[in-house]
């Protein structure tokens, strides 16, 4: 493992070892569970403690969950076993390991942003497949999330990054209205890869 990768892994291992930190699924998934297929396979990319992966497994999907942190992956494996859920949690550097094309019916990404990976994520969806994506925006009402603006989305950027897909749900509240209410500081999207038309 390269030095930079090893340092990244160590940093996330330390964060994920905190016993007070518990997994939670992203709102974009919880608010849109009704859009999931009844069967199929799903990937929770950069899963952390795997809140999304657990929710997808509870919905009956065949789940893979990948993260660079072996601590996170082990905690997720134990949690899934304790609930009697089957999922495949693996330690992987998703910036190095290539995604297979047409591999998943559902991909969920929350609070991880690498713009260079977007074409590979889109290619990894099967025709008809859905991506659920949620992460921090630059325009925000609080100081949660990364301070480096490069790791935050610009206005409507998720739509642009996933433009080859069809948008099924989108929410980005910016600083409109009553700032004490709503889903602030994040953008969320559910988008679908359309099936190829036969000529
Ligand atoms: C802010 S956390 C989000 C975790 C989870 N998706 C969630 O919403 O709780 C970012 C995650 O990305 C993972 N990560 C960062 N770089 C990665 C890489 N190159 N390959 C795989 N995982 C990575 C970290 O280990 C961490 O678990």
UniProtKB/TrEMBL annotation:
The keyword Transmembrane does not apply. InterPro entries: Methyltransf_25, SAM-dependent_MTases_sf. Residues 43-129 form the Methyltransferase domain. It holds the Pfam family Methyltransf_25. One of its GO terms (molecular function) is methyltransferase activity. The keyword Methyltransferase applies. GO terms for biological process: methylation. Keywords: Methyltransferase, S-adenosyl-L-methionine, Transferase. PANTHER family: METHYLTRANSFERASE, UBIQUINONE BIOSYNTHESIS O-METHYLTRANSFERASE, MITOCHONDRIAL. This is SAM-dependent methyltransferase. It comes from endosymbiont of Escarpia spicata.
